[in-house]
Amino acid sequence: MHQVQLTTPAGACEILVGELLSSRLQMLEQEPVLMIDENVLVQHHDLFEPFRSVIIPSGESYKTLQTVEALYRELVTLETDRSTLMVGVGGGLATDVAGFVASTFLRGTPFGFISTTLLGQVDASIGGKNGVNLDGYKNMVGNIRQPSFVWCDLSLLGTLENREYVSGIAEVIKYGLIWDIPFMDFLEESMEALLKQELSVLEHVVTTSAAIKTDVVQKDEKESDLRKILNFGHTIGHAIERHKGVLHGEAVAVGMVLAARLSHLQGLLTASEVDRVERLALSAGLPVRMKLDPEEIYQNIRKDKKKSGEDVHFVLLKGLGNTIIRPIPLPELKSIVYDLC
Ligand SMILES: NC(=O)c1ccc[n+]([C@@H]2O[C@H](COP(=O)([O-])OP(=O)(O)OC[C@H]3O[C@@H](n4cnc5c(N)ncnc54)[C@H](O)[C@@H]3O)[C@@H](O)[C@H]2O)c1
Q: Which of 44, 174, 238, 242 is catalytic?
């Protein structure tokens, strides 16, 4: 088992990676309430059935304030109080929603996560960002509050649909591209084993990803500066994700390749480095291009940007393993999107 410790002014979080769940569940000091993804409960019924639980419906369309409100009411029915330990169980959707519910219900209860998707284990469950979408726009309502623990049990990934697993690899690749060239080399060498979920490779990949995200979050929990680099590939990725049927990691993979091409257009990345980014994503089985309507993508970015003021802060690669954030005014962004799509 591997451990990564995350400490910020807002709290501390112990991230554990391995095959650990059944023993850890027995060690909980108090009876928790699970807020659990409906499919995870079906797939791992024996493990979670003994606990009190409320169900989080699966699917991005349920990542809403309506779902949050329904969960609050169920917690009232269960007579939970401010000391009740809430455990979000599921992928990024369930932990984003559960973290928001737990950190706002009764002005905040103790909470932790059991992350059950690759994307959740390497990214979504770490860093304390909780929240829901509003009118289809991603993560418009939420907060930053750290869970006290994140358990990443690798054996749970065995029941995940292959397409969902591959989607998680996009965020793994992102860490190599923005932060860690040796990790990128490792991914190039080990992609086949990673796709087969070979335990030692998976353990290394999840632990390294968790450690990189932790490093960044500890330096800038509130995303005033450095943490923005984690959005590499996400500006366009989020705009693509609004297309029905595209998974988060798939949209991010296309977004990363477009961001790499933009980095090349801006003289920051060589053509062969762009090829390397594309090859790595392809080797995982991720899409690297899609038929996109530039106007629609631009309008989606524009609306998504409501969160950040006038300019779009675009994360670009300044060589592999290194980033630069360029504020791009909207009119300029429009012509860039038309060039790229
Ligand atoms: N908070 C953050 O920092 C952050 C970062 C990245 C992404 N996210 C969010 O994460 C979400 C995407 O997360 P995701 O990719 O994990 O998707 P997800 O949570 O929607 O899970 C994907 C699918 O897999 C099912 N599932 C989950 N675990 C399973 C298991 N072990 N076995 C079988 N089925 C399982 C779910 O029911 C769902 O159908 C998005 O809402 C995104 O905005 C948040």
A: 238
The chain-wide mean pLDDT, for the chain, equals 93
Question: Which mutation among 48, 62, 93 tests ligand 1's pocket best, with the greatest number of atoms within 8 A of CB?
Answer: 93
24 is catalytic: no
**DSSP per residue over 305-316, as a string?**
GGGG-SSEEEEE
> Quick one: pLDDT at residue 170?
98
Domains 2-159 and 162-340 share a fold: no
Amino acid, single-letter form, for residue 60: E
What pLDDT, in 10s, does the model give residues 89-100? 999 999 999 999
Domains of the chain, residue spans: 2-159, 162-340
User: Can you tell me the distance from the alpha carbon of 256 to that of 273, in angstroms, rounded to the nearest whole number?
Assistant: 12
Question: Does the pLDDT at position 272 exceed 80?
Answer: yes
Calculate the CA 136 to chain-centre distance: 17
Residue 70, C-beta contacts closer than 8 angstroms, at least 6 positions apart: none
CA 14 to chain centre: 17
Measured in angstroms, how far is the CA atom of residue 321 from the centroid of ligand 1? 26
pTM over 0.85: yes
Q: Which residue has the tokens 């980033």?
A: 323
- From 100, 160, 246, the mutation candidate for ligand 1 (largest count of ligand atoms within 8 A of CB) is 160
Mean pLDDT of the 313-336 span: 91
Give the Cα separation of 22 and 26 in Å (integer): 7
Domain 2-159 = CATH 3.40.50.1970: yes
The answer regarding whether domain 162-340 maps to CATH 1.20.1090.10 reads yes
Residue 149 near residue 160 (C-beta atoms within 8 A): no
